[in-house]
Amino acid sequence: MIKEWATVISWQSGMAKVSCDVKASCSSCASRAGCGSRILNKLGPQTQHTIVVPSEQPLVAGQKVELGIAEGSLLSSALLVYMSPLVGLFVVGGLFQVLFGGDLAALCGALLGGVGGFLLARGLSPMLAARAEWQPVILSVGLPPDMLRVDASPSETGQ
Protein backbone atom coordinates (compact mmCIF):
# COMPACT_ATOMS: atom_id res chain seq x y z
CA MET A 1 0.00 0.00 0.00
CA ILE A 2 1.34 3.41 -0.98
CA LYS A 3 0.49 6.02 1.65
CA GLU A 4 0.30 9.81 1.62
CA TRP A 5 -1.05 12.42 4.05
CA ALA A 6 -3.68 14.88 2.81
CA THR A 7 -5.63 17.81 4.25
CA VAL A 8 -9.41 17.80 4.27
CA ILE A 9 -10.97 20.69 2.34
CA SER A 10 -14.61 19.73 2.90
CA TRP A 11 -16.85 16.80 3.84
CA GLN A 12 -20.42 16.31 2.61
CA SER A 13 -22.69 13.26 2.50
CA GLY A 14 -19.94 10.71 3.10
CA MET A 15 -17.52 12.16 0.55
CA ALA A 16 -14.39 14.04 1.61
CA LYS A 17 -12.62 16.47 -0.69
CA VAL A 18 -8.92 16.37 0.19
CA SER A 19 -5.81 18.15 -1.00
CA CYS A 20 -2.46 16.39 -1.36
CA ASP A 21 0.73 18.42 -1.54
CA VAL A 22 3.16 17.52 -4.30
CA LYS A 23 6.56 16.87 -2.77
CA ALA A 24 9.62 17.85 -4.74
CA SER A 25 12.04 14.96 -4.94
CA CYS A 26 15.10 17.19 -4.80
CA SER A 27 14.72 19.11 -1.55
CA SER A 28 17.44 17.22 0.32
CA CYS A 29 19.60 15.83 -2.46
CA ALA A 30 23.29 16.71 -2.59
CA SER A 31 23.31 17.18 -6.37
CA ARG A 32 20.53 19.73 -6.64
CA ALA A 33 22.40 21.96 -9.08
CA GLY A 34 22.63 19.36 -11.85
CA CYS A 35 19.37 17.53 -11.27
CA GLY A 36 16.82 17.31 -14.10
CA SER A 37 13.94 16.63 -11.69
CA ARG A 38 14.52 19.97 -9.98
CA ILE A 39 14.16 21.80 -13.29
CA LEU A 40 11.00 19.86 -14.18
CA ASN A 41 9.50 20.60 -10.75
CA LYS A 42 10.06 24.31 -11.32
CA LEU A 43 8.26 24.20 -14.67
CA GLY A 44 5.00 22.81 -13.34
CA PRO A 45 2.83 25.36 -11.54
CA GLN A 46 0.61 22.78 -9.83
CA THR A 47 1.71 22.10 -6.27
CA GLN A 48 -1.50 20.47 -5.01
CA HIS A 49 -3.85 17.73 -6.19
CA THR A 50 -7.48 17.69 -5.08
CA ILE A 51 -9.38 14.39 -5.00
CA VAL A 52 -12.64 13.11 -3.56
CA VAL A 53 -12.60 9.98 -1.38
CA PRO A 54 -15.41 8.23 0.48
CA SER A 55 -15.45 8.67 4.27
CA GLU A 56 -18.10 7.34 6.64
CA GLN A 57 -16.64 9.38 9.49
CA PRO A 58 -17.50 13.11 9.49
CA LEU A 59 -14.42 15.23 8.86
CA VAL A 60 -13.73 18.93 9.30
CA ALA A 61 -11.76 21.30 7.10
CA GLY A 62 -8.08 21.35 7.99
CA GLN A 63 -8.07 17.82 9.41
CA LYS A 64 -5.27 15.50 8.26
CA VAL A 65 -6.04 12.07 6.81
CA GLU A 66 -3.73 9.32 5.58
CA LEU A 67 -4.66 8.07 2.11
CA GLY A 68 -3.61 4.75 0.67
CA ILE A 69 -3.74 3.14 -2.74
CA ALA A 70 -2.84 -0.44 -3.62
CA GLU A 71 0.56 -0.83 -5.25
CA GLY A 72 -0.83 -3.23 -7.84
CA SER A 73 -3.34 -0.70 -9.13
CA LEU A 74 -0.69 2.00 -9.35
CA LEU A 75 1.66 -0.29 -11.25
CA SER A 76 -1.14 -1.45 -13.56
CA SER A 77 -2.09 2.11 -14.43
CA ALA A 78 1.54 3.05 -15.07
CA LEU A 79 1.91 -0.02 -17.27
CA LEU A 80 -1.18 0.95 -19.25
CA VAL A 81 -0.10 4.56 -19.73
CA TYR A 82 3.51 3.89 -20.68
CA MET A 83 3.47 0.51 -22.38
CA SER A 84 0.44 0.74 -24.68
CA PRO A 85 1.90 3.58 -26.81
CA LEU A 86 5.30 1.87 -26.82
CA VAL A 87 3.88 -1.50 -27.89
CA GLY A 88 1.73 0.22 -30.54
CA LEU A 89 4.77 2.06 -31.83
CA PHE A 90 6.84 -1.11 -32.29
CA VAL A 91 4.08 -3.42 -33.51
CA VAL A 92 2.49 -1.11 -36.07
CA GLY A 93 5.89 0.24 -37.15
CA GLY A 94 7.15 -3.32 -37.71
CA LEU A 95 3.96 -4.29 -39.50
CA PHE A 96 4.21 -1.32 -41.87
CA GLN A 97 7.90 -2.16 -42.48
CA VAL A 98 6.97 -5.70 -43.50
CA LEU A 99 3.93 -4.72 -45.58
CA PHE A 100 5.35 -1.73 -47.44
CA GLY A 101 9.10 -2.39 -47.20
CA GLY A 102 10.30 1.15 -46.64
CA ASP A 103 11.69 3.25 -43.83
CA LEU A 104 9.17 6.01 -44.43
CA ALA A 105 6.34 3.48 -44.13
CA ALA A 106 7.84 2.15 -40.89
CA LEU A 107 8.05 5.71 -39.54
CA CYS A 108 4.42 6.42 -40.44
CA GLY A 109 3.37 3.09 -38.90
CA ALA A 110 5.31 3.85 -35.74
CA LEU A 111 3.62 7.24 -35.42
CA LEU A 112 0.18 5.71 -36.02
CA GLY A 113 0.87 2.91 -33.53
CA GLY A 114 2.11 5.31 -30.85
CA VAL A 115 -0.89 7.59 -31.21
CA GLY A 116 -3.20 4.56 -31.36
CA GLY A 117 -1.68 3.16 -28.16
CA PHE A 118 -2.10 6.52 -26.46
CA LEU A 119 -5.75 6.69 -27.54
CA LEU A 120 -6.29 3.11 -26.35
CA ALA A 121 -4.87 3.97 -22.91
CA ARG A 122 -6.97 7.11 -22.79
CA GLY A 123 -10.12 5.13 -23.62
CA LEU A 124 -9.46 2.33 -21.14
CA SER A 125 -8.41 4.52 -18.20
CA PRO A 126 -11.91 5.81 -17.26
CA MET A 127 -13.27 2.25 -17.16
CA LEU A 128 -10.38 1.02 -15.05
CA ALA A 129 -10.46 4.08 -12.77
CA ALA A 130 -14.06 3.26 -11.83
CA ARG A 131 -12.98 -0.05 -10.25
CA ALA A 132 -13.02 -0.03 -6.44
CA GLU A 133 -9.48 -1.41 -6.06
CA TRP A 134 -8.08 1.51 -8.09
CA GLN A 135 -9.57 4.13 -5.75
CA PRO A 136 -7.66 5.70 -2.86
CA VAL A 137 -9.00 4.96 0.63
CA ILE A 138 -8.65 6.72 3.97
CA LEU A 139 -6.40 4.62 6.21
CA SER A 140 -6.27 6.82 9.32
CA VAL A 141 -7.66 10.13 10.49
CA GLY A 142 -5.81 12.75 12.51
CA LEU A 143 -7.31 14.95 15.19
CA PRO A 144 -9.40 17.92 14.07
CA PRO A 145 -7.40 21.18 14.10
CA ASP A 146 -9.48 22.66 16.96
CA MET A 147 -8.95 19.63 19.27
CA LEU A 148 -5.25 20.15 19.83
CA ARG A 149 -4.03 23.31 21.51
CA VAL A 150 -0.48 24.12 22.51
CA ASP A 151 -0.01 26.68 25.26
CA ALA A 152 3.23 28.57 24.68
CA SER A 153 2.89 30.93 27.66
CA PRO A 154 5.53 30.70 30.43
CA SER A 155 4.69 28.53 33.40
CA GLU A 156 3.42 30.34 36.51
CA THR A 157 5.06 27.97 39.00
CA GLY A 158 8.62 28.15 37.70
CA GLN A 159 8.95 31.93 37.28
Notes on the protein architecture:
The chain is of the alpha+beta class. It has one domain. Helix content is 41%, strand content 23%. It contains 3 helices and 5 strands; from the N terminus they run E-E-H-E-E-H-H-E. A 5-stranded antiparallel beta sheet has the order 3-2-1-4-5. The longest helix has 30 residues. The N and C termini lie far apart (50 Å). The model has no long low-confidence stretch (mean pLDDT 82).
List the helices and strands and how they pair.
Blueprint: E1 2-12, E2 15-21, H1 36-43, E3 48-54, E4 64-69, H2 71-100, H3 103-129, E5 137-141
Antiparallel strand pairs: 1-2, 1-4, 2-3, 4-5
Helix pairs in contact: 2-3
Features:
3 helices, transmembrane helix, 159 residues, 5-stranded antiparallel beta sheet, membrane, transmembrane, elongated, 23% strand, alpha+beta
Summarize the structure.
The protein has 3 helices and 5 strands; from the N terminus they run E-E-H-E-E-H-H-E. It is of the alpha+beta class.
Radius of gyration: 24 Å
Q: Unreliable stretches, pLDDT < 50, 5 or more residues?
A: none
* Count of helix runs: 3
Structural class: alpha+beta
Q: What profile does the largest beta sheet have?
A: 5 strands, antiparallel
Pfam families: RseC_MucC
InterPro entries: RseC, SigmaE_reg_RseC_MucC
Organism: Trabulsiella guamensis ATCC 49490
Transmembrane segments: 79-98, 104-121
